[in-house]
Amino acid sequence: MSKAVYWRQTLRFLTMIRSGLISMIYTQTLDMSATALKDSETITLISTDVERIVTNMRNLHELWASILEVGVAIWLLEREVWIACIIPLVISLGSVLAMVPVSTRFGQAQKRWIECVQDQLAMTSSMVSRMKTVQILGLSDILFKTVSRLREVEVQTSARFRKLLIWQIALSNIPVTLAPFATLTIYAVIALVRQDGSILSTTAFTTLALISILTDPLLVFCQAIPANIQAIACFSRIEKYYKNSTPLPVSSTTLSDDNIEENKESQPYKVSQAVNSPLVSFKNAEISRSSEKEPALKNLNLSICRGVVMIIGGG
Q1: Is 306 within 8 Å of 275 (Cβ atoms)?
Q2: Pick among 3.65.10.10, 3.50.50.60, 3.40.50.300, 1.20.1560.10: CATH of 2-244
Q3: Would the pTM count as exceeding 0.70?
Q4: Nearest to 213 by CA among 82, 58, 85
């Protein structure tokens, strides 16, 4: 029952993280200009980075809970095999220390891999959105080779990440494999030196069960360290996107009843509150995407009335 409640709260927490990050990225993207969006970075952040954060943070609480479980298991194991209880602890600590350099390399390796995925996704989506033009110009073979080359680069870049993943799995399984054998061997040697007789079957089975209680949380702990480092790397990519994005400039002029009259002469448009008069009027207006760009529309004269559906199309 307690395990069910724990996983319910954990999955609820992960769902909140996913929804919060996606909403934040989506809101930030809406506030950006079209020229600032490039390389399908938004799609990569929402799909790849957010999902890896949610996946890797499933065992977040195991980082501190595993330490408590290991302490209790060592205390119980000491009651059965005396000083031999330090053998699985030494093996486990060695595995954890060996995991540290592997974990520190996970973040950068994953970041480079995701950047290659982002480049490939940007190229593929751009090609698919202009498929008619690609076929007319006969660029299918050229773009196919380009996308294939990007895929090869992605696979080559991910090789380092996958090698680190193999090392993580191998090192995290060392305590599970070696601890029972080493502990019972040392205990047998101690019993032989002390002339304490052979190991009883009950002692052996109890020791194996306690070693399992000791090594299982250590296995989760060793796998949770690099997983959370990967999640931190994804968080850093989202933070970088949030800091480097430039929001659209917001005009400081507010159209209210108080300042409409005083800004009437300086503004290129007029706002009217009358029912039969135009709602917005443009006279000799110039419209551009930003203050640094050339005006897309010049000398615009337009009146928009209430209750009228107006569609403006461009070639």
Answers
A1: yes
A2: 1.20.1560.10
A3: no
A4: 85
